[in-house]
Amino acid sequence: MSQPTASTSSSNSPSPLQLQMCQVTGCSEETAAELLLLVGQDLAVAVDRFYSKQEEEVVRGRDNTGMAVNNELMFDQNVGQASSSGGVKRKAADVIILDDEEESLDFIFGSEDKPSKMSTDANDNLEDNGEIDPKFTEEEMMQQALEASAAEYQSKEPTPEANFQVLSQNYPHLDQAALSDLCQEYAGRSADLEKFVQLQIHNLPTKLDAEKSKLQNQIDEIKAAGVEGADQMIVEECPKCKIPRIIAEPAAKVFSCLDPACKGEFCRKCKMEQHIPYKCKGQLFDENVEFQVINILPKRMFDENDPLDKEFRIAEGQFLRMNSKTKNKYEITSIDVVNNRDLETKFEKKKKELAINGGDEGCLLLFHGTPQKNIELILKNNFDLSIRTNGRAYGDGVYFSECPEVSLGYSRDQKTLILCKVLMNSNCKEVKDAPTARKGDTRCWAVVVPDVNQILPKYVINFTGGRG
Q: Which of 100, 305, 376, 406 is most buried, with most CB under 10 Å away?
């Protein structure tokens, strides 16, 4: 079977492993290439094999007549096969050829330039009597090879300063002092540093975070000095440029940015441009009023920053989606959005109570039809279970429906419906198989709710039109 050979073309530059082999053993590049190929590019095994063969040749280097012996080493292809001990099994067939002319040890590795004698580094490991210097054991040689490899790796490792320069350019928004400390902490471990930054990028302090901390420390120092009014000072960022500043008067309604590039003035409540004495744009309800109803007209443009617009589209979407199962054509003229603090407090309390007891089954938006004269009382005081108007075929409680056309049958004018938020629980009764229910309709024909605290009247939908 033919022996594997290493490429010795002058156009191929030696690999890092070959250079390390040459540095450790003093052998030629061609010898290093051949040995590394035979042992599967394992540097430690290659070094061990090199010195083992040298030792054999020194011991058998001369015959009884004093003639030099030239040993040609032919390596079995099975070199590199794993041994049972986890190491590498080495096999070699030594062919001894007498040569009166050659005085050197000639290793044949398929190279054109054969060394005439062992390198100086190799001879340093031998005593004059031809025996191996005991201070260079096989384990020490392997350790030297590993140390050389580690030294080369460290020589290519970027410095903390170089890492900082790269990170500061790639992440200019991060705190520079924190980045510098991080680079020093991971000195000599740039790969670990890169992984850490990638995983923790959103948790690393930014320049704005550092500035906020600096300002907060200033406030703490002022408090420690006993300055009057220091307890009310806070750190607040500009709604536009996000640069923070200290607010000495929490009751101030306007935020004035101190950054020369911004110099903006903003309402501290709505974060929009300063508009005093006018009311905040998009403010839904007056905070000083317990009960309010705001009428909203439909519009073409959608303003995602306007809470009134969002409320309108919630009610509009529910009405049109639930009505899509019918042929009725309606046009919404306006929607009233209701704010009743007392009813909202009771509703949220009941919601928490159901959640604690494991009875919270979610919230539905359900329709209720009633004459116009009853609507305002319901919005203010919620439903009155003591009032019976249309009978209670499915038990006591307030009757709702997911079908607008069902609720409209109780509104008389056919132009207005109340849309309520309803907390579902096991005490509610859902009716889907009523005599007038449509076959295959997934909407619930009726929902009976016995507890008014599970009900929050939220919208009044006003519309025109009817059957198509």
A: 406
